[in-house]
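Q: Hi! First time doing this. I have a protein sequence and I read that you can turn it into a structure. Is that right? Here it is:
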Amino acid sequence: MALNNPAFNNPAFQDPKAVKTYPGGQNAASLGGQTQFATAQHAGTDAAAQAQLEGMYAAPPAGAIETDRMTVEDTVWKTFGLFAILVVTAAVGWVWTLSTVAETGQPNILPWIIGMLGGFVLALAVIFGSRKKVRPLLIFVYAAFQGLFVGGISAFFEFLYSGIVMQATLATLAVVGVTLALFASGKVRASKRATKVFMIAMIGYLVFSLLNLVLMWTGVLPASMMFGLHSATIMGIPLGLIIGVLVVIMAAYSLVLDFDQIQQGVRNGAPRQYGWLGAFGIMVTVVWLYVEILRILAIVRGSN
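A: Yes, that's right. Below is the predicted 3D structure, encoded as structure tokens:
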């Protein structure tokens, strides 16, 4: 059901039988010592060997390094690693964007554009390339470009509305934290019906965004329309704000789907390298969520 995030459109996250196609088969996917112990019981009755195997059985379960299999914990650490790269390059993008303010009075949008285009190209390379092989280096470079984009766009909005970046960051952390807590507690789960509704809404939003972009490029709409900073309202509420709230809900549900697919990859016994793909998918969704929250706050601040 990885309909939301192309990063998870891979047999490792989709096919419950995929583990059989990986080196080592299901025996290699075992995360504990139970398989080794059960096998040893049939191998012989030597007392010393039996005692040793019993010690292995009582030992803590093997992790991702020992099994070379994907685990939730290992994927979490990989996710933190990617966001560390993003934060570093975001700082570069922030400084670069504001470097022209003293001279021209306006921020430099070049870091934002470079990060957006570079991130888009690398995302496609990661998604399509992962069908044959997961390449962590591409994912690292993607995180770097995403950081440049996030830092650039954050500095641009901070220039317009002081304090907005801190608000957007806290709101994003809150949404991610609540979504993760609800998912971990089992209170929120992905369903086929909800995913179908999500896909319809997502396609509609993409069509709307592309149409909006084309109308801006052709001069029919002003450039401010890119982020919904316009006066169109429904019952007194800015249209951009309504759309933004709906998109944040979609992004939160996309996170639920991402968490679900990571768990599926672990159950399938996917190789450890697929943890990078899971971390990549989480980053794509979280950055999307952050930008949408930033846009919503800009609409609210701009209408006051």
